[in-house]
Amino acid sequence: MPSIMRFIVVGFFLFQSFRFYVNGVGLSYNFYGKTCPQVEYIVRDGLRPMFLTDPTSPAALLRLMFHDCQVQGCDASILIDPGHGSEATEMKASKNFGIKKRELISMVKSMVEAQCPRQVSCADILVLAAREAVAASGGPRINVPLGRRDSLHSPSYRLADALLPPATTGVADMLKIFANKGMTLAESVAILGAHTLGITHCSNIQNRLYGLKNGELRAIEPTFAAFLRLTCQRGSLTSNLSFVFNDPTPFAFDNEYYANAMRGRGLLRIDVEMVSDPKTARLVQHFAMNRDDFFRAFSSAFVKLSRYGVLTGKQGIIRKNCYEIK
C-alpha cells in the first residue's frame, strides 16, 4: 500500500481523536461516574468466564449488538420477549436467525442490578458486552460513551427484516447504510471486519453457490468453491444448521478477514465485491496489511454505530429485566 494511503488513514484517525462525531446527545464517557462507577468492571468480570468456556460467545454478542443497533438504534429492543397476544417481536425476524447469547446480557444485568439498582440500561450493558467481546478476542479495547436508555417497545419483525441488510447486499448499498450512520468510507470498510469473528450459515450462501448467476461462483477461489459446495450442498434441509467459518481464525479478532477476501475466499457477496470495487479495494488491501490501522478505524466505526439513534435523558426507561418492559 502506498505510503500516502497510510498517511491519509492515520491522519484521519488522529483528527478524530480531537473531533468526535456527535449523534446521541446525552451520552458521555463518565455517565455512571457517580451512580455506578464500577459498571464496566462488573460487565468485564461477568463475561470473562463465559468467553473462556464458550469461544463462540464473543461473535454472538458482537452480532447481537449490531442487529439491535441497526433497527431503531441501540436500545436493547432485540432483548424483549413477546407478551401475551402481542405481535411477534424483532427476534422473530428471518434476518435474526442464529441470534443467540441474549441470556448473557440478562445474566450480566442481574449482576449490575445487585450493585446499582435501576441505574444502568440494558442497552449500555449490551454495548459494553460487545466491546468486551472484541477485546477478549484479541481486538482493540474500545472506549465507548454511555447513557443510553432502553426502548419502551419492540419493533415488529417486519421492521427488523426491512432494516437489517440481507446476505446479498453489495458494496454500494452497504456503503449507503453506513454513511447514513455517519461513517466515513474507511470506517464503513472497517466495520465489515466484524466478520472476522464467527460463522456464516449455509442458507446465506446457497444462492451464490447454486444460483443462475454463475459469475458469483467464478469469483470464489476454485478449491474453496469446491469445499463450500461440499459443505453446503444444494437444497439441503440442514442449510440453516450447516455453517462455515468466516475466515481461518474465527475466534480471533484480527485482520485475517481482509486477507482471506483478497485470496478469493470471501463468503458473502460484500466480501467478494469489496476486493474489486474501486471505492473499497485499496482500503481492503490496506487493512489486510495494517492491523493497527484496521483496529483504529473499526473502533471509530463501532462508537458511531453505538451512538446512532439512541434514547437518552428522559426518553425510554431503565429496565430491571432486559426481557420485559417495566
Automatic annotation (TrEMBL):
Keywords: Calcium, Disulfide bond, Heme, Hydrogen peroxide, Iron, Metal-binding, Oxidoreductase, Peroxidase, Secreted. SUPFAM superfamilies: Heme-dependent peroxidases. Its cofactor is Ca(2+); heme b. It comes from the Eukaryota. Its EC number is 1.11.1.7. It catalyses: 2 a phenolic donor + H2O2 = 2 a phenolic radical donor + 2 H2O. Residues 26-326 form the Plant heme peroxidase family profile domain. It is found in: Secreted. PROSITE patterns: PEROXIDASE_4 (PS50873). Binds 2 calcium ions per subunit. Binds 1 heme b (iron(II)-protoporphyrin IX) group per subunit. Signal peptide: none annotated. The keyword Plastid does not apply. Its main location: secreted. Removal of H(2)O(2), oxidation of toxic reductants, biosynthesis and degradation of lignin, suberization, auxin catabolism, response to environmental stresses such as wounding, pathogen attack and oxidative stress. Belongs to the peroxidase family. Classical plant (class III) peroxidase subfamily. This is Peroxidase. The lineage of its organism: Eukaryota, Viridiplantae, Streptophyta, Embryophyta, Tracheophyta.
